[in-house]
TrEMBL record:
Skewed-composition ranges (Basic and acidic residues): 1-10, 72-103, 131-168
Protein name as annotated: rRNA-processing protein FYV7
Region spans: Disordered: 1-36, 57-188
Organism (species): Lojkania enalia
Length: 203
């Protein structure tokens, strides 16, 4: 009996595994902005990968061509390049282009004096809280004036107190009498005269 031919779509035969492409983002995105964005990213990635492959191929070709060239060829090429270059002797004279620029008269810009004066002036800076600053300055001045007036009043009060004390002591000494118990009219008269002058001066 002849052997049975195996079916092509038989499950027992090992099937070829298909390569699954890479995925970007979730698979179940609805149609719309997000899906288009994901597709664009995927296309960009594929394009970049292709560019990298092409670049690698070109680089490999260049490297292989460089390896094929002999060392002697490289030396001859460099010698030819050196021979072709003209040897310029260094000189102290300026370059012809520079000399031409130096000889030409430079056009002077017309200066506008009014504009320069405007530039020179500085605009006053706007001061924030100007009114508050003035008010604070005024209050400081008032406080300083009050303090000075208070000091003057204290000095005047102390002077008057000292004068009264001196007057009282002088009167007490004059009324106290001397060794014989009589009042010292000379001393007392001077003090009383001073008191009268002060009273008349105040009136």
């Amino acid at each position: 009996m002849a052997t049975k031919r195996a079916r092509e779509d038989d499950s027992s035969s090992p099937s070829k595994k298909q390569k699954k492409g890479f995925s970007v983002g979730p698979a179940n995105l609805p149609e719309g902005t997000y899906k288009r964005k994901v597709q664009k990213i995927k296309k960009d990635l594929i394009h970049k990968a292709k560019l990298r492959k092409e670049y690698a191929k070109i680089k490999a070709q260049e490297q292989s061509s460089e390896l094929q060239r002999s060392v002697y060829d490289c030396e001859h090429d460099s010698a030819d390049v050196k021979a072709r270059e003209p040897q310029l002797e260094p000189t102290l004279e300026p370059h012809p282009d520079r000399r031409k620029l130096l000889e030409e008269p430079s056009p002077e810009p017309a200066s506008n004096p009014s504009r320069q004066a405007e530039r020179g002036k500085k605009r006053p800076r706007p001061q924030p809280y100007r009114n508050e600053t003035k008010f604070a300055q005024k209050r400081r001045e008032e406080a300083e004036a009050k303090r000075k007036a208070r000091e003057e009043a204290d000095k005047e009060r102390a002077r008057k107190r000292a004068e009264r004390e001196r007057f009282r002591k002088t009167i007490a000494k004059a009324r106290g009498g001397g060794s014989n118990g009589q009042r010292k009219l000379g001393r007392e008269s001077a003090v009383l005269l001073e008191k009268v002058k002060r009273l008349v001066g105040n009136a």
